[in-house]
Specification:
With 204 residues, the chain is α/β, with parallel strands linked by helices. The protein has a domain at 2-46 and 108-199: 3-Layer(aba) Sandwich (Rossmann fold). The chain is built from seven helices and eleven strands. It is globular and about 45 Å long. The protein binds adenosine-5'-diphosphate (ADP) and guanosine-5'-monophosphate.
Length: 204
């Protein structure tokens, strides 16, 4: 798939959609934030709906659209989601079709920060137009330390996330690219290279 971008005459993009998946705590948000900061006119994050309550400084409409279970289920019935999952028992997360339309209408490449199942569903829909990247932690122990240090997740949720992480790691081979986030500086350099070669093709 080849996509000519209307606003950047010197650039053309080979992927219209970037999917980032990783077990919770792997550093996916950190790496996504890196891209959004360094390429503010190119990428835009798809904001998901969720029924989980906001954490820390999270704001409605910025990290997520925080909605009730009733609202979420109504949107499912209305067919407004491209994909949705109960990522954790009783907690819904989903991508609104209108979110993708909004970002693409602004001439931006959509970044998805979603769970593995959701990521694979998006990849199935968009095929070669999407680049699916799996961010791996160096180990489950490292993951535990990062979640504990982040300090915004309860001990019970950390255990749930670690159990889920071991299963999710088995899906890494399904992705187009795998980046091991051992050292953050090294991993972001690898990501930048990937973006230059596989997503942006800058003609000087
Ligand atoms: P995710 O979005 O995958 O849940 P985060 O980006 O929130 O993960 O990262 C989890 C925690 O680990 C954060 O506190 C972050 O600052 C830290 N972190 C991210 N990458 C690294 C790394 N390579 N080494 C050590 N800590 C890291
Ligand atoms: P958190 O509660 O830590 O923000 O996110 C929990 C998990 O839900 C993460 O793996 C995150 O990527 C995933 N997630 C966030 N939004 C969506 C979404 O719209 N769809 C799916 N399938 N997963 C999502």
């Amino acid at each position: 798939m080849f996509y000519n971008h209307p606003h950047y005459s010197t650039n053309y993009y080979t992927a219209m959609i970037l999917i980032f998946c990783a077990p919770s705590g792997s550093g996916k948000s950190t790496m996504v934030r890196h891209l959004l900061t360094h390429y503010p006119d190119t990428f835009e994050l798809s904001i998901s709906c969720t029924t989980r309550p906001p954490r820390g400084e999270e704001k409605d409409g910025r990290e997520y659209y925080f909605i009730s279970r009733e609202e979420f289920e109504q949107k499912i019935r209305q067919g407004l989601f491209v994909e949705h999952e109960q990522v954790y028992e009783g907690l819904y997360y989903g991508t609104l079709r209108s979110e993708i339309d909004r970002i693409q209408a602004a001439g931006h490449i959509v970044i998805f920060d979603i769970d593995v199942k959701g990521g694979m569903n998006i990849k199935r829909i968009y095929g070669d137009a999407a680049l699916a990247v799996f961010i791996c932690p160096p180990s489950i122990e490292a993951l535990r330390k990062r979640l504990e240090n982040r300090g915004d997740t309860s001990a019970e949720m950390i255990e749930k996330r670690l159990a889920k992480a071991s299963i999710e790691m088995q899906d890494a081979p399904l992705f187009d690219v795998k980046i091991i986030n051992d050292d953050l500086a090294r991993a972001t350099t690898e990501l930048d290279e990937l973006i230059k070669t596989k997503v942006l093709n800058t003609k000087e």
